[in-house]
User: Fold these one by one.
Assistant:
Number 1:
Amino acid sequence: MQTEPEIGEILVQADQLKHRIKELGEQISLDYEGKDLLLVGVLKGAVFFLSDLMRHISIPCEVDFMAVASYGSATDSSGVVRILKDLDAAIEGRDVLIVEDIVDSGLTLKYLLRNLGARGPASLEVCALLTKPERRKVELRSRYVGFEIPNKFVIGYGLDFAERYRNLPYVAALVEQ
Ligand code: 5GP
């Protein structure tokens, strides 16, 4: 009989998240001073991170969202990405910072960088809360990274398993029974 998966080891505690996100917000505020900063959140996982991050950004900035679906299994993306919701406005000439929850294989982000890059932004960078370097399949550079984590499927602080667990205030490994 299939039982409910369990919340496993906590990999990033709530106070660590709070502290690091404040640092990232302060760094972004310094780096983008005088620029036309647009944060692009990738739905749904990045919403929690983005809203906390934005409150630590002290320079004028705007926010827009994209939703993408990656073809593949539940835990492995294929790199073939479908846009479910596009940005509301054009990004030509703007300083765009993609805000992602987690970079795993990097395939989704590679697609987003190519797609948004083709729209003529003044600059295009990435801010990812979590990264799993061991899983990377493509060469990618994220300007801002919150935490490097081991190769485990994680939940919490926006990250889901079958749409659940996004509301956990920390990041934990998922234990499947
Ligand atoms: P990638 O294209 O880099 O392989 O996958 C990126 C997307 O896969 C993330 O934005 C996230 O939605 C999902 N993902 C990757 N690793 C995890 C994980 O450990 N937990 C959860 N909940 N989602 C993950």
Number 2:
Amino acid sequence: MILVTGGAGYIGTHTCVELLNAGYAVTVFDNFCNSNPESLKRVERITGKKLQWIRGDCRNRDELIAALKQSGASAVIHFAGLKAVGESVEHPLWYYDNNVIGTLRLLEAMQECGVRILVFSSSATVYGDPHRLPLAEDHPLSPTSPYGRSKLMIEEILRDVQHSDQSFQMGILRYFNPVGAHPSGLIGEDPQGIPNNLMPFVAQVAVGRREALNVWGNDYPTPDGTGVRDYIHVVDLALGHLKALEALQAAQRAQTSPFSGCLTVNLGTGRGYSVLDVVNAYEQACGRPIPYQVAPRRPGDIACFYADPQQAKTLIGWQANLDLNAMCASSWHWQSTNPNGYHT
Ligand code: UD1
């Protein structure tokens, strides 16, 4: 049994699908502050399997202990957290409370219940402005927002806890830019309010919910002047969690610590695409023009950011397989069949 915190969210639901398909039993622990239980019904529809879910908050140790005991979980995948960079600048305490304190309470509950495997959702944002590209795991860590710093603080906590108790098997997964949706079109990203991120904004323009995309700057030192990112299909990302989990389980069975501390891997494709590359690929996928205008640079943005994905291949046998066309086609399938997300 795997306990999945934040399992009703965007990446969580896609990971639950892959866990259930692989034969794991799943209990979701979620406070639904930015998600909807409907997404879990969709997970059951896709897989034809049932999952358990518990409404609970990671800052509440007793609720976590009850969930771990009730489910009989042998491992935790920890997605629960806040993730909006701009909001984290406005309300840093929300981020340190939800993300950092929530993880502390989770670790205490795991210690109490003897659960020793944790896969954690980190972010490539922990690297900050790149000194060199592609970004490898040994790049210095210097996040530039409270959101990013909350992720880095959690990473440091995990490293300290694992160091103090070698029976803990921990995976730190640094995501690049997750996009796309399950090919069924039943689950996908369902942002509240105006999307901050590129692909959900483009999707809403395509479906007619928004008039035009603002391209934040076309004077970056990139081939077409717009920002370059490493977009990764959310299904590939979900499969990365499965591979990490399996590697940690194997290490636990062998009673070894093969990763010299926490298993730490980038989950990215290693390929960068510009904003205009994404717009063009999306136009192909949806068969409509995506109107856009060039606007000033967004503060805090950088020109170019993409992964060195080699370490994930070496350590957990994972690599991304789905390309930008598959990302856009699946995003469009989800967006066009659920124009208002789970509220349709
Ligand atoms: C952002 C976060 C990052 C987080 C990631 C999640 C910042 C600085 N970084 O990354 O911490 O982990 O989301 O996916 O916010 N763009 C437009 N118009 C738009 C939206 C975006 O031109 O309306 C451009 C951006 O300038 C950028 C690219 O699209 O070049 C990607 O932006 P976005 O999807 O927001 O991701 P990141 O900024 O890379």
Number 3:
Amino acid sequence: MILLHNAYLATGEREGDGAILIDGDKIAGVCFKEKDGSSKLPSSAGGMSIPYEMLSDYLSRKFDNLQVIDIQGKCIMAGGIDAHVHFREPGLIQKADIGTESRAALAGGVTTVMDMPNTNPPTISAAALKEKIGIAAEKGANHVMFHLGVTNRNVADIQRIINYGDEQTGISAKDFAGLKVFMGSSTGNMLVDSGDALEEVFAMNQKPVLVHCEDEQTIKENLAKAKEKYGEDIPFEEHENIRSRRACIKSTIKALEMAMRHNTRLTLCHISTKEEVEMVRAAKISNPDITAETSCNYLWFSDEDYPRLGSKLKCNPSVKGASDRQALREALSQGLIDTIGSDHAPHLESEKSGNYCKAPSGLPSVQFTLPVLLTVADQEEIPLTRIASVFSEKAADIYGLKEAV
Ligand code: DOR
Ligand code: ZN
Ligand code: ZN
């Protein structure tokens, strides 16, 4: 048994001085110091209240194998759950792989990740999912979970896997975290544009549905206009006008409308505009299972950074204006943003050094979510309870990863 003593604890509900009792690989108790100086013992230690100052002496007497570690006032939060990473394996391992990226996650305090399906082959079948699970197991990356990708044609197959499991591979609903729908195409061209397929997925409420919202037609038209104006030499600043706020808003309206109609367990991935913040605020009233994710890309950068960073800042959706960033920070503070996904999307430097049309979209960021969040919390006076919630606890709720203490 281990007692992490003299810590500053931050959970989704509460922050303050306290201690954590660990039994093997499980947390056996979280003991906050109450206002009157008392602390409630974990039920495994009797459950009564004693003076906080006596906690380590008392538990040392009770458990003779207790190791007390003095945390000296440092902050302890639960490990991060990043439900949105692109780890590139299989098929794109020149960019990165499950081994390297899962270690980067751990280095950034992220102890569970969920990998997106736009690999090669894409994770759109039980067989492809089984292959990925096998790779992660081989690499000892047991903190990597996977989302299954939706296509225009595989919805019936997904429904079958959820209902009955896949006999050939043994894959069943417990083997994937959620369903990923690209309502706008990005790296990997996994666009779902069939109205029927979308309706069917949104009506399926056994699994969380994660959507990338950017209207394809709007982007195409904007890109054509930019090409007409600039030829092949489109400046990276134009990314915001090509992958425009209008493209995001249009697609997000469509997703929210369907999710309100079907009561979908919808997660809007990486929202990037102030309009989407307001839409989420309204939509949650009719369907509280709608959740919103943003990434640190949009909390940290703004369009003022394009001239300095060029292709390094090219990601989909695009980074928008400073007022969008501010609205997202306020939404984080108010609890409208439910989760922070890194949208970790590594590419080779050689690929990123191409011109606008060639340079792929995405930033490698899984290791930096926590430092960015803590800095933003400091700048905006956001309590650590909010950070603990968006970094970890809410995702545990959405994906059913909570275990009773
Ligand atoms: O910028 C992005 N990069 N957005 C996506 O939707 C996909 C990702 C990737 O996989 O490169
Ligand atoms: Zn996306
Ligand atoms: Zn993504």
Number 4:
Amino acid sequence: MKRLVVLISGRGRNLQALIEAQRAGHIPAQFAAVISNRADASGLTHAREAGIPTEILPHAQFPDRAAFDAALAGRLRALRADIVVLAGFMRILTDGFVREFEGRMLNIHPSLLPKYAGLDTHRRALEAGDAEHGATVHFVTPTLDSGPSVIQGRFSVNAEDDAASLAERVMERIELKIYPQAVAWMARGELKLQDGAAVLRGRRLAQPATLADLEEAFR
Ligand code: GAR
């Protein structure tokens, strides 16, 4: 069984979806731990209720980014993490950290990458007048929100939408489906990072997978 470590900073809705999918037998892996850089992250409750060990690594207690990342890498090594899942982990990671876990670390981002790396994605999509919006799961590489995309889900933006309504639809309709699917592919060994590209069941993804590629269990 592969060992998953999920890193969070906040609410943990993606974490909860992963927990439910794993419990239902759709992700063949075990949770080694959930680590938060914030003691008050409400997502920690989901982990505790599921009986998953939790750890808090408060970034403010480290002198700089490198020291925090070194401590985090140490915990991931000690936990023997096979797969590192960034689920609303709001930290910019150093190159050294990313290189150590490259190919084993996924992130979910609330935009149709390569659009809107960084923060405030829903507002930026509205201001640009985008007809579509969504979310993307990608491998983490040193450039922020720029690693090879694995799966992306999209929907149409309505005239009545505001940033809050977009955020809710991105979460409900897209994130909570595509992340468990991507983590399941990783856990089964079907998804790999090879020569800088995402490879699913031996096929290089020239375009990310879409909602149409979700298996029944993840729809
Ligand atoms: C999600 O929308 C996720 O895509 C986003 O934070 C939210 C976390 O929600 N991540 C990023 O913006 C990463 N740059 P959650 O804690 O309820 O899963």
